[in-house]
Design brief:
The protein is mainly beta. The protein has 2 domains: about 1-150, no CATH class; about 170-290, Beta Barrel (Cyclophilin), CATH 2.40.100.10. It contains 3 helices and 23 strands. Strands 7-6-9-4-1-12-11 form a 7-stranded antiparallel β-sheet, with no helix packed on it. Strand 17 and strand 18 (about 240-245) form a beta hairpin. The N and C termini lie far apart (about 45 Å).
Length: about 300
């Protein structure tokens, strides 16, 4: 058992999400930074289906009810146990009564806490994820929330530490042409894929609102609502694009100019207000995207 003493700005339970329900208006949701979530589970020897705690901008504090093996990944927060520094991106044993605290990450936004066995909350439509848009799944964590530990442990972990690079505050994300590129001018595609965009404060797990050059329409009128996917770059009438993340709506009526490649969505999920992002066309070879571009500085 884990007891939440403080949730920080936002802490939720996340797994791989609830797939296959878009026809009834339910998005997949799940961990925004899937790579960091998966790494945390591997470090404690969990089954891939195990749920973790996604902490936004640090501030999470929890108390262990018994001896637990945990790991923290994602945005590189300072980790302490009972006030003493503890390792990041490495397995860590908590003794009964120990208090684990996450500080403020210097870069990135979302950190992931895995506990061996997984966070055990009642699944909804096959997932333990919190969907902040629809309200499905467990409520965001609050002080006093009790988190049971499940039984989704696999083989004992054999890794001491995972040396991973911190997220970039100026990533370059690869994009494919969106299904409604023809609804925007040629200059709009050029502006999207050659310029830089600033993440605004009006951003969350649903999507990132971006400030930069205005992206102009080539057509008047509006589209009927059509399906959306994670990574869709939608352009509302004001010309300021929105990059959709894990909790995106399943449909939308504004044209989608581009779609970020799946491999780059974890980098997008770590962007916070004020960060700068660039988009570049993905180079396709035999149906696969090229390796990630080097982050700008």
């Amino acid at each position: 058992m884990l007891t939440v003493l403080a949730p920080g700005p936002l802490a939720t339970v996340q797994d791989h999400g609830r797939r296959g329900w878009a026809s009834i208006g339910v998005t997949t949701s799940g961990a925004a930074d899937r790579a960091a979530h998966d790494l945390a589970n591997r470090l404690v020897g969990n089954h891939p289906a195990a749920a973790t705690v996604e902490a936004t901008a640090g501030g999470l504090r929890l108390s262990a009810g018994r001896t637990l093996l945990v790991a923290v990944t994602g945005a590189p927060v300072p980790v302490t146990v009972d006030g003493r520094a503890a390792p990041f991106a490495a397995p860590l044993t908590l003794r009964p009564g120990a208090v684990l605290s996450l500080g403020l990450p210097p870069v990135g936004l979302r950190s992931y806490l895995a506990v061996r066995g997984g966070v055990d909350v009642p699944p909804v439509l096959g997932s333990r994820s919190t969907d902040t848009l629809s309200g499905l799944g467990p409520a965001p964590l609050a002080a006093g929330t009790l988190l049971a530990v499940g039984s989704l442990a696999a083989e004992e972990p054999v890794v001491d530490v995972a040396p991973v690079r911190p997220p970039s505050s100026r990533p370059v994300l690869r994009v494919l042409t969106g299904p409604r590129r023809d609804w925007l001018t040629a200059a709009a595609w050029s502006a999207l894929t050659t310029g830089e965009w600033t993440v605004t404060a009006d951003s969350d797990r649903v999507g990132l609102r971006l400030a930069g050059p205005r992206l102009d329409r080539a057509r008047n009128g509006e589209l009927p609502s059509e399906g959306l996917v994670p990574g869709a770059v939608q352009v509302p009438p004001d010309g300021a694009p929105v990059l959709f993340l894990a909790d995106h709506p399943v449909t939308g009526g504004y044209p989608v100019l581009a779609v970020v490649t799946t491999a780059d969505l974890s980098a997008a999920a770590q962007l916070r207000p004020g960060d700068v992002v660039a988009f570049r066309p993905a180079e396709l070879s035999r149906g696969r995207a090229a390796p990630p571009a080097r982050p700008g500085r």
